[in-house]
Structure formats: structure tokens, C-alpha cells
Design brief:
This protein is α/β, with parallel strands linked by helices and 485 residues long. The chain is 38% helix and 22% strand.
Length: 485
């Protein structure tokens, strides 16, 4: 059976169903504007039913030994690996990213099932020495309950697996609301989970245009004990406020404003390559951990900036299935308008365009959602393009004098998700890595993160961690047991 299956249903309680009100929403290809599917536009009753189904499935799944849960998750990993290209094609269709990039995303996404399949059997407790005779003290961890997961469109596979794999490994049941722009990958994942033997109701996917309606059910339903969300800081704050009514646990991966710092002792070619990779080659810059501000030490600016610009001008913008495509379309017109407004505003305020700086709209770019890879120089810290999360293929370049200055400027933001810097000085590596107020720091490494370490941010970039051994802990409660003997 195709992993896509019937493109007109959502997955609730082990069944493929439509919305109770028969409303639908259209999913389109951002590269072509062509319709891909008409999916259910779920209402409040549909989402409540999904939460009920998860609540019914939870006790049995929670009681399943971690080793057995891990075997099912391992089977999910194997099926995802077998069907990587089919899933990647789906990602490119609904997201627009180049097919080769989509294949890399799917390969990485599957790794969360492999990692947490193993972690499922490693949820350890403790026996604590008692302070008095005649008593025994145990500490154990148990799954928190039903988890509501809300994921964005920029990584339709990874954002889903990074949440559901640890939740399922912990013994939780999940109701997922994928982004309305990219729900097909999530539904394909649900089909594979069912084929791998995941019991009905343990993983449910609801589709809908109204995030506020669906999110409110997650806040209201008493069985939902945890909300895991990736998206904007503003929405995260609203969810956190709403979750307080029932003291639901939350974990958030929110916005970013990542600095990319090139010190005067760095190897310039690898730094330029790394800067281009983390700025432009992750969903055309539509990623929270993309470099958002590039800082170059004054003494090397005349060498580094031309190297960086040269690499950017060689990037190939094209529809995702075109051979050699490196940058695809932006996801929608709202994102494109914001990106262009930031660029034009910076130019008006004195920034200089060293590459790009315009929309692309002719020929293969006729949908109007493409933006030329852009480099801006003579950018100042007070410009909106340096303060706001760009979420597009635009690199604002600024210079700095010394280490203390660039640390201060890098930390002068409400965000704290990811930061990157290049240096060959070991002492500087330690100083700067410890001084940057970010949850993830790449030193001479712009590849991002791996399954084995936690992902998450400081300040208004989020709460909690995903991945690593910490990832499964986010879905567990700690219980203390005192026994009189």
C-alpha cells in the first residue's frame, strides 16, 4: 500500500475519517500552485474525539513494557528507511524544498525512531537509602498521559518525529496537529506507524485550518496532560497562558535570531561554506536555527565577505524536483512579503545589496514565491532585518572589533536558540561557547544538531528539550514511593 493512501482523510482511533461537518481544506504545491489534496478541516468535535481516542488507548500502551514499545518503534524506523524517497517526494510536493534536501530531512527524521526505540527500555528509577529504619524509598518514572503535539511546515517529517517518537517511547498517546500547509507527510507517517503495529488510538492525526480551534481543544480536554509545540514565540506564549488553567505541562521550540560569528583567526573558506549552508540550504532560510545575523571581524571583512558573496551568487534557485536545485520557493505569499519588506526596509535605511535583493517571478518562478538568495552589507544592529527572525534566504552582514563586543551584540536579543562561530583558538572556543546565551552552539560546525544531544533554546526561544536522553524525560512524570516495612 502506498504511504500516501487516500488523500482525503485524517487518522483518528485507528480509522481514516473525514470531518463531522464535512468541511475540507486544500493542500497545494508552493512551487507550482497545483492542488495536492483536499483534507478534512477538523472542528472542535473532531479534535475532542481524537483526544478521547488517545485517552482510551493510553492505559494499555503505558503498561506495555518499554522493550516491546521499542520493537514497534524500531519497525517504524525500518519502514521509514525503506520508503525514504517516497516520503521525501511528498515533502517536496507540499513544502517545496529541493528533493535532495527532502531526502536528507527524511533520513534524519527516521533517526528519532531509531534513537527512542532504544531509549524506551532505559527509563530508569532509583532506590534511595532511607533516613530511618523500617522504610524503603523508590523513585520511578511513568508516562505523563495524552500528549497534544503541534508542528510547523518547514520540516514536515523531522518536526513530527522529534515529538512523537519520544512521546510514544515513554508510553504516551499522541494527538498531532500538523501545519495546514504540510499535513500529508504526517498522515503518511501515521499510515506507517499503523503498519508497524502501533495500536489504534495511540497516534492520531487531525488536520485543519484553524490552529486556534484545535489548540483550544488541546487546552480544554482534561485528558491532555502535555502540549508540545514548535512555532512562533507569540503563539507559544498564548498556549502557555491557556495551559495554566489546568496546569498542563508544556515544551516549546520557538523563534530564533541566530548569530554566525567569524573571528579573525578562523579558516575562512570553511567558515564561508558553513555560513552559506546554515543560512541558505535549510528550507531556503525558513528555519529557526538558520543564521540570522552574520558577524565578521573587521580585520578579515575584506577577505571574507567577497568569498561569502561569491558562494551565494552560485546557489541554484529552482523548483524542488529540478536537478541541482538548492533553494526552492518560500511556503506562502505572507512569508515572501515579510522577507521582501525586511530587505527593502534595510536598503532604505542604508544597507547595500551585495547579492540578490529581489523577488523572482518569471518562467519557472511564475508562482511568485521565489526570492533570490540575498546578502546585505553595511547593516546596522537597529535595523529590523537584524532584530527580527527573517525566515528567508537573506543574510545581513555586520562587522565587529573584538570578542567582548560580538558576544554582547549576539546576546542582545530576546531569543536564544542557536549560535555559531568559527575560530582556531582553543581558549576562545571555550570562552565564547560558554558566554553565548543559546541552547545550541556550533563551533566550526554549522550542521546543526544530532539525535544524541538535546535540542532547545534559552530565553524566549522555548522551554524543555527534544532529542538526547533528555527528550524522553519531557514525557514522563516522576513518582516517589515510600514504603513502611
Amino acid at each position: 500500500m502506498s504511504i500516501v493512501g487516500e488523500r482525503s482523510r485524517m487518522y483518528v482511533g485507528g480509522a481514516w475519517i473525514g470531518a463531522a461537518n464535512d468541511k475540507t481544506m486544500r493542500v497545494t504545491n508552493p512551487a507550482t500552485g497545483e492542488p495536492l489534496a483536499d483534507l478534512p478541516d477538523a472542528g472542535r468535535d473532531d479534535v475532542w474525539k481524537a483526544c478521547d481516542e488517545a485517552a482510551k488507548a493510553f492505559p494499555k500502551w503505558a503498561a506495555t513494557p518499554g522493550l516491546e514499545r521499542g520493537k514497534i518503534l524500531r519497525r517504524v524506523y525500518e519502514l521509514l528507511t525503506e520508503r525514504r524517497d517516497e516520503l521525501a517526494r511528498l515533502v517536496t510536493e507540499e513544502n517545496g524544498k529541493p528533493f535532495e534536501e527532502a531526502k536528507r530531512e527524511v533520513a534524519f527524521a527516521t533517526g528519532y525512531f531509531s534513537w527512542f526505540a532504544e531509549e524506551a527500555r532505559r527509563v530508569y528509577g532509583e532506590i534511595v537509602p532511607p533516613p530511618v529504619p523500617g522504610k524503603r524509598l523508590w523513585v520511578m518514572r511513568q508516562p505523563i498521559g495524552v500528549v497534544a503535539a503541534i508542528t510547523p511546515w518547514n520540516f514536515p517529517a523531522t518536526m513530527v518525529t522529534r515529538k512523537i517518537a519520544p512521546a510514544l517511547a515513554a508510553g504516551c498517546a499522541v494527538v498531532l496537529k500538523p501545519a495546514s500547509a504540510t499535513p500529508l507527510t504526517a498522515l503518511a507517517l501515521a499510515r506507517i506507524c499503523a503498519e508497524a503495529g502501533l495500536p489504534a488510538g495511540v497516534f492520531n492525526v487531525v488536520t485543519g485550518k484553524s490552529s486556534s480551534v484545535i489548540g483550544q481543544v488541546f487546552l480544554d480536554h482534561p485528558a491532555v496532560r502535555k502540549i508540545a509545540f514548535t512555532g512562533s514565540t507569540e503563539v507559544g506564549k498564548r498556549l502557555m497562558a491557556g495551559a495554566s488553567a489546568q496546569l498542563k505541562r508544556v515544551s516549546f521550540e520557538l523563534g530564533g535570531n541566530a548569530p554566525f560569528i567569524v573571528f579573525d583567526d578562523a579558516e575562512l573558506a570553511p567558515a564561508a561554506d558553513g555560513g552559506v549552508a546554515i543560512k541558505f540550504l535549510r528550507v531556503a532560510g525558513q528555519s529557526c536555527i538558520c543564521a540570522n545575523r552574520v558577524y565578521v571581524q573587521e580585520s578579515i571583512a575584506e577577505k571574507f565577505i567577497p568569498m561569502f558573496v561569491e558562494r551565494v551568487t552560485k546557489l541554484k534557485v529552482a523548483p524542488g524536483f529540478e536537478p541541482g536545485a538548492q533553494i526552492g520557493p518560500l511556503i506562502n505569499s505572507e512569508i515572501l512579503e515579510k522577507v521582501d519588506a525586511l530587505v527593502q526596509g534595510a536598503i532604505k535605511d542604508g544597507a547595500r545589496v551585495a547579492a540578490g535583493g529581489r523577488r523572482l517571478g518569471n518562467g519557472a518562478f511564475s508562482t511568485g514565491l521565489y526570492y533570490a538568495p540575498t546578502v546585505l552589507t553595511q547593516v546596522r544592529e537597529e535595523m529590523a532585518v537584524a532584530k527580527e527572525e527573517i525566515f528567508g534566504p537573506v543574510a545581513p552582514l555586520m562587522t565587529f572589533k573584538d570578542e567582548a563586543e560580538v558576544i554582547q551584540r549576539s546576546n542582545n536579543t530576546t531569543f536564544g536558540l542557536a549560535a555559531y562561530f568559527y575560530t582556531r583558538d582553543l581558549r576562545r572556543t571555550i570562552r565564547v561557547a560558554e558566554a553565548l546565551e543559546y541552547g545550541m552552539v556550533g563551533v566550526n560546525d554549522s550542521t546543526g544538531y544530532t539525535h544524541e544531544i538535546p535540542f532547545g533554546g534559552f530565553k524566549e526561544s522555548g522551554l524543555g528539550r527534544e532529542g538526547g536522553k533528555q527528550g524522553i524525560e519531557e514525557y514522563m512524570e516522576v513518582k516517589s514511593i515510600s514504603i513502611g516495612i
